[in-house]
Write a structure and sequence with these properties.
With about 230 residues, the protein is of the alpha/beta class. The protein is about 40% helix and about 15% strand. The chain has a 7-stranded parallel β-sheet with strand order 5-4-3-2-1-9-6. The chain has a two-stranded antiparallel sheet with strand order 7-8.
């Protein structure tokens, strides 16, 4: 059995305004290990040249591709998403659940079969989808066999958020940020007690920084320092 290992990284959506090479430079300067490349700006589905560029830049910096953060909602063609993930060398594709439980289970099962030879599929724990609360998420996981990332839901207190994490079958990754109240972006230290408790429970997977205050690239370095502190 592989030894549990917590890998610290960043989502490229954290740095939407920067080109690929600068995203990599920021991640390397922050001492992170991996990058989840997003399909919204940096590596659009089917843009294989961008995927090759992102992979080459990531590996040249001594980092690894953690995953491909797609916004596929369990509908429409999956092949462009999968093609980009393959070119990235991504071991996993992050997807969003759709609005219909039956359709989501059917379509994600088909996507998982397409990807099964080399790439895993995982939902994102996200508002406005079937994974917006822990009960519906657990139902979808049970029906589809597909795991789900975790992140702290908006306006949920620490105890309730942690209860959801503990109930969730092993999440391949967590998205790390401190929002409070609502979508107000705070530095990680503002919710340090939450993240210390998260990493007391979560010791195996990717911990990916997301949404720093003001989208400021310089904050990625200090946020990475805080992430290392709370995850020790």
């Amino acid at each position: 059995m592989p030894t549990p290992y917590l890998s610290l990284g960043v989502c490229s959506v954290t740095l939407r305004a920067l080109p690929i090479d600068e995203v990599v430079a920021v991640a390397a300067r922050a001492g992170l290990e991996c990058i989840e490349w997003g399909g919204d700006v940096h590596v659009a589905p089917g843009d294989l040249a961008a995927a090759r560029h992102a992979r080459a830049a990531t590996e040249a910096a001594g980092l690894r591709v953690a995953s491909y953060g797609s916004y596929w909602r369990c509908s429409g063609p999956f092949e462009p998403v999968l093609a980009s993930a393959r070119e990235l060398g991504a071991p996993r594709v992050r997807i969003w659940a759709g609005a219909s439980p039956a359709a989501s289970v059917r379509d994600v099962a088909a996507a998982a079969r397409e990807a099964a030879r080399s790439i895993a599929v995982a939902f994102e724990f996200h508002g406005g989808t079937l994974t917006e609360d822990i009960d519906s998420t657990l139902s979808l996981i049970a029906a589809s066999g597909v795991p789900c990332y975790w992140q702290p839901p908006q306006d949920m207190d620490d105890d309730e958020a942690l209860d959801g994490l503990r109930r969730l079958p092993h999440a391949p990754a967590v998205h790390v940020f401190s929002w409070w109240p609502g979508a107000t972006r705070l530095p990680l230290r503002a919710r340090r007690s939450l993240w210390e408790r998260v990493f007391a429970a979560y010791r195996d997977g990717d911990a990916l920084l997301e949404f720093v205050p003001g989208d400021d690239p310089e904050l990625v370095v200090t946020e990475a320092e805080e992430l290392r502190r709370v995850s020790r």
